[in-house]
Amino acid sequence: MSAPAVPKRVNLRTPEVMEAVQAAVEQHYHSPLVDRLRANGGRAQFGDVSVRLAKQFGFCYGVERAIDLAYAARKVFADRNIFLVGEIIHNPDVNAQLASMGIRTLSGPCKSTDIDNLSPDDVVIVPAFGAEVAVHDRIKARGCQIVDTTCGDVMSVWKRVRQYANDGVTSVIHGKADHEETRATSSRARDTQGNGHFVVVYDLNEADMVCHYIRGKGDRTAFLEKFSSACSAGFDPDLHLAKVGVANQTTMLRSETEEVQRRVREAVVARDGNADNFRVFDTICGATQERQDALLELLSNPPDLMLVVGGYNSSNTTHLADMAAEKTPTYFVVNASCLDSPARIRHYDTHGKKEIATENWMPSGLVSLGITAGASCPGNLIEDVLRRFLELRGIALQEVVAS
Protein backbone atom coordinates (compact mmCIF):
# COMPACT_ATOMS: atom_id res chain seq x y z
CA MET A 1 0.00 0.00 0.00
CA SER A 2 1.45 3.36 -1.04
CA ALA A 3 1.90 6.14 1.48
CA PRO A 4 -0.81 8.84 1.55
CA ALA A 5 -0.03 11.99 -0.40
CA VAL A 6 1.35 14.89 1.63
CA PRO A 7 -1.51 17.37 2.21
CA LYS A 8 -1.25 20.71 0.46
CA ARG A 9 -0.11 23.48 2.80
CA VAL A 10 -3.03 25.78 3.65
CA ASN A 11 -2.67 29.29 5.05
CA LEU A 12 -5.29 29.63 7.77
CA ARG A 13 -4.32 33.14 8.77
CA THR A 14 -5.53 35.13 5.76
CA PRO A 15 -7.02 38.56 6.58
CA GLU A 16 -10.51 37.42 5.63
CA VAL A 17 -10.37 34.30 7.81
CA MET A 18 -8.79 36.04 10.79
CA GLU A 19 -11.34 38.86 10.71
CA ALA A 20 -14.11 36.30 11.08
CA VAL A 21 -12.14 34.37 13.69
CA GLN A 22 -11.50 37.44 15.82
CA ALA A 23 -15.17 38.34 15.76
CA ALA A 24 -16.17 34.85 16.90
CA VAL A 25 -13.47 34.63 19.58
CA GLU A 26 -14.41 38.04 20.96
CA GLN A 27 -18.07 37.06 21.06
CA HIS A 28 -17.31 33.89 23.01
CA TYR A 29 -14.55 34.99 25.39
CA HIS A 30 -14.28 38.78 25.61
CA SER A 31 -15.20 40.68 28.80
CA PRO A 32 -15.95 44.42 28.67
CA LEU A 33 -16.03 44.51 32.48
CA VAL A 34 -12.57 42.99 32.79
CA ASP A 35 -11.30 45.45 30.19
CA ARG A 36 -12.66 48.36 32.27
CA LEU A 37 -10.96 47.04 35.38
CA ARG A 38 -7.67 46.67 33.51
CA ALA A 39 -7.96 50.27 32.29
CA ASN A 40 -8.49 51.35 35.90
CA GLY A 41 -5.30 49.70 37.11
CA GLY A 42 -7.08 46.48 38.05
CA ARG A 43 -8.99 48.12 40.90
CA ALA A 44 -12.67 48.91 41.45
CA GLN A 45 -15.13 49.47 44.28
CA PHE A 46 -18.54 47.83 44.09
CA GLY A 47 -20.65 48.64 47.15
CA ASP A 48 -18.77 47.19 50.13
CA VAL A 49 -16.46 45.10 47.91
CA SER A 50 -13.02 46.35 46.93
CA VAL A 51 -11.79 44.38 43.90
CA ARG A 52 -8.17 43.95 42.86
CA LEU A 53 -7.11 42.09 39.75
CA ALA A 54 -3.58 40.82 39.29
CA LYS A 55 -1.79 42.86 36.63
CA GLN A 56 -1.28 39.76 34.48
CA PHE A 57 -3.88 37.02 34.27
CA GLY A 58 -5.94 34.99 31.84
CA PHE A 59 -5.22 34.06 28.23
CA CYS A 60 -1.58 34.20 27.17
CA TYR A 61 -0.38 34.64 23.60
CA GLY A 62 0.18 30.91 23.06
CA VAL A 63 -3.35 30.07 24.19
CA GLU A 64 -4.87 32.84 22.07
CA ARG A 65 -2.95 31.59 19.04
CA ALA A 66 -4.09 27.99 19.59
CA ILE A 67 -7.73 29.03 19.87
CA ASP A 68 -7.47 31.31 16.84
CA LEU A 69 -6.04 28.48 14.75
CA ALA A 70 -8.75 26.07 15.90
CA TYR A 71 -11.47 28.55 14.93
CA ALA A 72 -9.70 29.24 11.64
CA ALA A 73 -9.52 25.52 10.89
CA ARG A 74 -13.24 25.17 11.48
CA LYS A 75 -13.93 28.03 9.05
CA VAL A 76 -11.47 27.02 6.32
CA PHE A 77 -12.29 23.31 6.47
CA ALA A 78 -16.01 23.81 6.98
CA ASP A 79 -16.99 20.64 5.10
CA ARG A 80 -14.41 18.31 6.66
CA ASN A 81 -14.16 16.30 9.86
CA ILE A 82 -11.93 18.04 12.39
CA PHE A 83 -10.35 16.24 15.33
CA LEU A 84 -8.30 17.49 18.25
CA VAL A 85 -5.52 15.59 20.02
CA GLY A 86 -6.86 15.75 23.59
CA GLU A 87 -7.78 19.24 24.81
CA ILE A 88 -6.78 22.45 23.04
CA ILE A 89 -6.00 23.96 26.48
CA HIS A 90 -6.88 23.03 30.05
CA ASN A 91 -10.19 24.81 30.33
CA PRO A 92 -13.46 22.84 30.17
CA ASP A 93 -15.55 25.80 28.97
CA VAL A 94 -13.24 26.48 26.03
CA ASN A 95 -13.08 22.81 25.10
CA ALA A 96 -16.87 22.55 25.33
CA GLN A 97 -17.16 25.52 22.97
CA LEU A 98 -14.93 23.80 20.41
CA ALA A 99 -16.98 20.62 20.76
CA SER A 100 -20.14 22.63 20.04
CA MET A 101 -18.45 23.73 16.79
CA GLY A 102 -18.10 20.10 15.73
CA ILE A 103 -14.44 19.66 16.68
CA ARG A 104 -14.10 16.15 18.08
CA THR A 105 -11.30 14.58 20.11
CA LEU A 106 -8.91 11.70 19.51
CA SER A 107 -8.11 11.10 23.18
CA GLY A 108 -9.47 11.78 26.65
CA PRO A 109 -12.93 11.21 28.14
CA CYS A 110 -14.74 12.60 25.09
CA LYS A 111 -12.80 10.51 22.57
CA SER A 112 -14.82 10.10 19.37
CA THR A 113 -12.50 7.98 17.23
CA ASP A 114 -9.00 6.51 17.06
CA ILE A 115 -6.06 7.69 14.99
CA ASP A 116 -6.19 4.46 12.98
CA ASN A 117 -9.68 5.41 11.78
CA LEU A 118 -8.60 8.76 10.34
CA SER A 119 -8.63 9.36 6.59
CA PRO A 120 -6.64 11.78 4.40
CA ASP A 121 -9.74 13.99 4.22
CA ASP A 122 -9.68 14.57 7.98
CA VAL A 123 -8.13 17.56 9.74
CA VAL A 124 -6.28 17.10 13.04
CA ILE A 125 -5.43 19.92 15.44
CA VAL A 126 -2.37 19.49 17.66
CA PRO A 127 -3.00 21.41 20.93
CA ALA A 128 -0.92 24.13 22.56
CA PHE A 129 0.87 21.50 24.69
CA GLY A 130 2.09 19.72 21.57
CA ALA A 131 1.89 15.96 21.02
CA GLU A 132 4.23 13.01 21.45
CA VAL A 133 6.40 12.17 18.46
CA ALA A 134 4.75 8.78 18.03
CA VAL A 135 1.27 10.33 18.02
CA HIS A 136 2.30 13.00 15.53
CA ASP A 137 3.89 10.40 13.25
CA ARG A 138 0.78 8.18 13.32
CA ILE A 139 -1.43 11.10 12.33
CA LYS A 140 0.98 12.13 9.58
CA ALA A 141 1.01 8.56 8.26
CA ARG A 142 -2.76 8.73 7.80
CA GLY A 143 -2.28 11.63 5.37
CA CYS A 144 -4.37 14.05 7.45
CA GLN A 145 -4.18 17.82 7.23
CA ILE A 146 -2.40 18.81 10.47
CA VAL A 147 -2.99 22.15 12.17
CA ASP A 148 -0.20 22.49 14.72
CA THR A 149 -0.92 25.01 17.49
CA THR A 150 2.02 24.00 19.72
CA CYS A 151 3.21 26.95 21.82
CA GLY A 152 6.60 28.38 20.87
CA ASP A 153 7.79 28.20 24.49
CA VAL A 154 7.07 24.47 24.52
CA MET A 155 9.02 23.97 21.31
CA SER A 156 11.96 25.81 22.88
CA VAL A 157 12.08 23.14 25.58
CA TRP A 158 11.94 20.42 22.89
CA LYS A 159 14.97 22.00 21.24
CA ARG A 160 16.89 21.90 24.51
CA VAL A 161 16.17 18.27 25.41
CA ARG A 162 17.03 17.18 21.88
CA GLN A 163 20.33 19.03 22.13
CA TYR A 164 20.98 17.30 25.45
CA ALA A 165 20.43 13.94 23.74
CA ASN A 166 22.71 14.86 20.84
CA ASP A 167 25.43 15.65 23.37
CA GLY A 168 24.92 12.44 25.35
CA VAL A 169 23.28 14.29 28.23
CA THR A 170 20.26 12.88 30.10
CA SER A 171 17.31 15.25 30.58
CA VAL A 172 16.05 15.73 34.12
CA ILE A 173 12.61 17.21 33.41
CA HIS A 174 10.80 19.12 36.15
CA GLY A 175 7.14 18.45 35.47
CA LYS A 176 4.22 16.07 35.78
CA ALA A 177 5.03 12.79 34.06
CA ASP A 178 1.44 12.26 32.88
CA HIS A 179 0.91 15.84 31.64
CA GLU A 180 0.46 16.18 27.87
CA GLU A 181 3.25 18.72 27.57
CA THR A 182 5.75 16.68 29.57
CA ARG A 183 4.94 13.54 27.60
CA ALA A 184 5.52 15.48 24.38
CA THR A 185 8.80 16.87 25.71
CA SER A 186 9.99 13.48 26.98
CA SER A 187 9.36 11.94 23.57
CA ARG A 188 11.83 14.41 22.08
CA ALA A 189 14.65 13.66 24.54
CA ARG A 190 16.27 11.60 21.78
CA ASP A 191 19.05 12.28 19.32
CA THR A 192 18.78 11.78 15.55
CA GLN A 193 19.52 8.05 15.97
CA GLY A 194 16.79 7.60 18.55
CA ASN A 195 19.20 7.49 21.48
CA GLY A 196 18.82 9.54 24.63
CA HIS A 197 17.29 9.31 28.08
CA PHE A 198 15.17 11.28 30.54
CA VAL A 199 13.75 11.14 34.04
CA VAL A 200 10.83 13.31 35.19
CA VAL A 201 10.77 14.78 38.71
CA TYR A 202 7.54 16.29 39.98
CA ASP A 203 8.77 18.07 43.11
CA LEU A 204 11.81 18.70 45.26
CA ASN A 205 11.46 15.37 47.05
CA GLU A 206 11.75 13.52 43.75
CA ALA A 207 14.58 15.81 42.66
CA ASP A 208 16.40 14.92 45.88
CA MET A 209 16.10 11.22 45.04
CA VAL A 210 17.89 11.90 41.74
CA CYS A 211 20.50 14.05 43.49
CA HIS A 212 21.04 11.37 46.14
CA TYR A 213 21.75 8.84 43.39
CA ILE A 214 24.08 11.22 41.57
CA ARG A 215 26.05 11.51 44.81
CA GLY A 216 26.39 7.71 44.84
CA LYS A 217 24.09 7.13 47.80
CA GLY A 218 20.93 5.88 46.10
CA ASP A 219 19.32 2.44 46.01
CA ARG A 220 19.06 1.22 42.41
CA THR A 221 15.98 -0.97 42.95
CA ALA A 222 14.11 1.74 44.86
CA PHE A 223 15.07 4.34 42.24
CA LEU A 224 13.84 2.30 39.29
CA GLU A 225 10.63 1.44 41.11
CA LYS A 226 9.94 5.06 41.99
CA PHE A 227 10.54 6.37 38.46
CA SER A 228 9.26 3.32 36.54
CA SER A 229 6.60 5.40 34.78
CA ALA A 230 8.63 8.61 34.68
CA CYS A 231 11.78 7.68 32.79
CA SER A 232 12.87 6.54 29.35
CA ALA A 233 12.86 2.88 28.31
CA GLY A 234 16.04 1.15 29.39
CA PHE A 235 16.95 3.91 31.82
CA ASP A 236 19.95 2.92 33.93
CA PRO A 237 20.72 5.42 36.71
CA ASP A 238 24.27 4.08 37.02
CA LEU A 239 24.94 5.02 33.39
CA HIS A 240 22.50 7.74 32.48
CA LEU A 241 23.03 10.13 35.39
CA ALA A 242 26.68 10.63 34.48
CA LYS A 243 25.81 13.73 32.43
CA VAL A 244 22.55 15.55 33.16
CA GLY A 245 20.74 18.64 31.97
CA VAL A 246 17.65 20.19 33.57
CA ALA A 247 14.57 21.15 31.57
CA ASN A 248 10.99 21.76 32.64
CA GLN A 249 7.32 21.69 31.85
CA THR A 250 6.77 25.36 31.00
CA THR A 251 3.91 25.85 33.46
CA MET A 252 5.75 24.76 36.60
CA LEU A 253 6.53 27.14 39.46
CA ARG A 254 9.66 29.05 38.51
CA SER A 255 11.14 29.13 42.00
CA GLU A 256 10.81 25.37 42.29
CA THR A 257 12.37 24.74 38.88
CA GLU A 258 15.30 26.97 39.82
CA GLU A 259 15.72 25.04 43.06
CA VAL A 260 15.71 21.75 41.11
CA GLN A 261 18.44 23.21 38.90
CA ARG A 262 20.48 24.30 41.91
CA ARG A 263 20.23 20.95 43.71
CA VAL A 264 21.10 18.87 40.66
CA ARG A 265 24.10 21.06 39.87
CA GLU A 266 25.25 20.84 43.48
CA ALA A 267 25.01 17.04 43.37
CA VAL A 268 27.07 16.85 40.15
CA VAL A 269 29.73 19.14 41.61
CA ALA A 270 29.84 17.07 44.80
CA ARG A 271 30.44 13.93 42.73
CA ASP A 272 32.80 15.29 40.04
CA GLY A 273 34.43 18.28 41.67
CA ASN A 274 33.12 20.56 38.90
CA ALA A 275 29.99 21.25 36.87
CA ASP A 276 31.28 20.01 33.50
CA ASN A 277 28.66 17.24 33.41
CA PHE A 278 25.76 19.58 34.19
CA ARG A 279 23.70 21.62 31.72
CA VAL A 280 20.85 24.07 32.20
CA PHE A 281 18.90 26.54 30.07
CA ASP A 282 16.10 28.88 31.10
CA THR A 283 13.03 27.22 29.59
CA ILE A 284 10.38 28.72 31.87
CA CYS A 285 7.40 30.20 30.00
CA GLY A 286 7.38 33.99 30.09
CA ALA A 287 3.60 34.19 30.45
CA THR A 288 3.61 31.72 33.34
CA GLN A 289 6.27 33.77 35.09
CA GLU A 290 4.43 37.06 34.47
CA ARG A 291 1.30 35.68 36.10
CA GLN A 292 3.23 34.36 39.09
CA ASP A 293 5.07 37.67 39.53
CA ALA A 294 1.83 39.67 39.24
CA LEU A 295 0.18 37.50 41.88
CA LEU A 296 3.14 37.93 44.24
CA GLU A 297 2.81 41.70 43.80
CA LEU A 298 -0.91 41.56 44.60
CA LEU A 299 -0.22 39.38 47.64
CA SER A 300 2.34 41.83 49.03
CA ASN A 301 -0.77 43.46 50.53
CA PRO A 302 -3.03 40.40 50.84
CA PRO A 303 -6.77 40.83 50.20
CA ASP A 304 -9.31 39.28 52.55
CA LEU A 305 -9.75 36.42 50.09
CA MET A 306 -8.61 35.31 46.64
CA LEU A 307 -10.56 33.73 43.84
CA VAL A 308 -8.38 31.89 41.32
CA VAL A 309 -10.25 31.00 38.13
CA GLY A 310 -9.32 28.23 35.72
CA GLY A 311 -9.51 24.58 34.76
CA TYR A 312 -8.82 22.14 37.56
CA ASN A 313 -6.33 20.25 35.38
CA SER A 314 -4.41 23.44 34.55
CA SER A 315 -0.90 23.23 35.97
CA ASN A 316 -0.17 26.94 35.88
CA THR A 317 -3.50 27.76 37.56
CA THR A 318 -2.83 25.19 40.28
CA HIS A 319 0.46 26.89 41.09
CA LEU A 320 -1.28 30.27 41.32
CA ALA A 321 -3.81 28.81 43.75
CA ASP A 322 -1.07 27.30 45.90
CA MET A 323 0.85 30.58 45.95
CA ALA A 324 -2.22 32.56 47.01
CA ALA A 325 -3.23 30.03 49.67
CA GLU A 326 0.04 30.70 51.50
CA LYS A 327 -1.04 34.32 52.09
CA THR A 328 -4.83 34.47 52.35
CA PRO A 329 -7.99 32.31 52.17
CA THR A 330 -8.08 31.15 48.54
CA TYR A 331 -10.69 29.37 46.42
CA PHE A 332 -9.75 27.81 43.09
CA VAL A 333 -12.95 27.73 40.99
CA VAL A 334 -13.55 26.55 37.46
CA ASN A 335 -16.34 29.06 36.78
CA ALA A 336 -19.12 31.06 38.42
CA SER A 337 -21.29 28.00 39.05
CA CYS A 338 -18.96 27.07 41.93
CA LEU A 339 -20.19 30.01 44.00
CA ASP A 340 -23.30 28.27 45.34
CA SER A 341 -24.31 30.84 47.96
CA PRO A 342 -22.83 33.26 50.51
CA ALA A 343 -22.62 30.24 52.81
CA ARG A 344 -21.12 27.67 50.43
CA ILE A 345 -18.51 27.52 47.69
CA ARG A 346 -17.20 24.55 45.71
CA HIS A 347 -13.52 24.71 44.84
CA TYR A 348 -10.56 22.57 43.93
CA ASP A 349 -8.30 21.13 46.60
CA THR A 350 -4.90 21.08 44.87
CA HIS A 351 -3.44 18.67 47.42
CA GLY A 352 -6.36 16.24 47.61
CA LYS A 353 -6.85 16.68 43.83
CA LYS A 354 -10.62 16.87 44.04
CA GLU A 355 -13.40 19.42 44.26
CA ILE A 356 -14.53 20.13 47.81
CA ALA A 357 -17.07 22.45 49.43
CA THR A 358 -16.37 25.06 52.09
CA GLU A 359 -19.08 26.56 54.29
CA ASN A 360 -19.25 30.13 55.58
CA TRP A 361 -16.57 31.21 53.13
CA MET A 362 -17.68 34.78 52.42
CA PRO A 363 -16.65 37.48 54.93
CA SER A 364 -19.24 39.94 56.17
CA GLY A 365 -18.91 43.70 56.11
CA LEU A 366 -16.30 45.49 54.02
CA VAL A 367 -14.26 42.98 52.05
CA SER A 368 -11.28 43.16 49.72
CA LEU A 369 -11.35 40.57 46.93
CA GLY A 370 -8.37 39.54 44.86
CA ILE A 371 -8.84 37.78 41.53
CA THR A 372 -6.44 36.09 39.16
CA ALA A 373 -6.72 33.41 36.52
CA GLY A 374 -4.54 30.88 34.74
CA ALA A 375 -3.20 31.35 31.23
CA SER A 376 -5.97 29.14 29.82
CA CYS A 377 -8.87 31.11 31.33
CA PRO A 378 -10.84 33.54 29.12
CA GLY A 379 -12.00 36.95 30.29
CA ASN A 380 -15.72 36.12 30.15
CA LEU A 381 -15.30 33.46 32.86
CA ILE A 382 -13.47 35.94 35.09
CA GLU A 383 -16.31 38.43 34.63
CA ASP A 384 -18.89 35.74 35.39
CA VAL A 385 -17.14 34.89 38.66
CA LEU A 386 -16.91 38.53 39.72
CA ARG A 387 -20.55 39.17 38.84
CA ARG A 388 -21.63 36.09 40.79
CA PHE A 389 -19.63 37.16 43.83
CA LEU A 390 -21.21 40.62 43.77
CA GLU A 391 -24.65 39.13 43.22
CA LEU A 392 -24.20 37.02 46.36
CA ARG A 393 -23.28 40.22 48.21
CA GLY A 394 -26.58 41.76 47.15
CA ILE A 395 -24.98 44.24 44.75
CA ALA A 396 -27.30 44.83 41.80
CA LEU A 397 -25.94 43.90 38.41
CA GLN A 398 -26.86 47.29 36.97
CA GLU A 399 -24.57 48.83 39.59
CA VAL A 400 -21.76 46.64 38.27
CA VAL A 401 -22.40 47.72 34.70
CA ALA A 402 -22.57 51.40 35.66
CA SER A 403 -19.44 51.38 37.78
Helix content: 40-55%
**How many DSSP E strands?**
15
Helix-strand pattern, N to C?
A: HHEEHEHEEHEHEHEHHHEHEHEHEEEEHH
Write the CATH architecture name of the largest domain.
3-Layer(aba) Sandwich
Q: What would CATH call the homologous superfamily of the largest domain?
A: 4-hydroxy-3-methylbut-2-enyl diphosphate reductase, catalytic domain
Question: How many structural domains in the coordinates?
Answer: 3
What is the terminal separation in angstroms?
Answer: 67 Å
Describe this structure in words.
The protein has 403 residues and is an alpha/beta fold. It has 3 domains: 31-59 and 286-402, Cobalt-precorrin-4 Transmethylase, domain 1; 61-150, Rossmann fold (3-Layer(aba) Sandwich); 153-280, 4-hydroxy-3-methylbut-2-enyl diphosphate reductase, catalytic domain (Cobalt-precorrin-4 Transmethylase, domain 1, 3-Layer(aba) Sandwich). It contains 15 helices and 15 strands. It has helices spanning 15-29, 32-39, 61-76, 92-100, 133-141, 152-166, 180-186, 204-214, 220-226, 237-240, 254-272, 286-299, 315-325, 379-392, 397-402; strands at 43-46, 49-53, 82-84, 103-105, 123-126, 145-148, 170-174, 198-201, 244-248, 278-280, 305-309, 330-333, 344-349, 354-359, 367-373. The strands form 4 sheets. Strands 1-2-15-11-12 form a 5-stranded mixed beta sheet, sandwiched between helices. The chain has a 4-stranded parallel beta sheet with strand order 4-3-5-6, with helices on both faces. α1 (15-29) packs across α3 (61-76). The longest helix has 19 residues, at 254-272. The protein is globular. The model has no long low-confidence stretch (mean pLDDT 93).
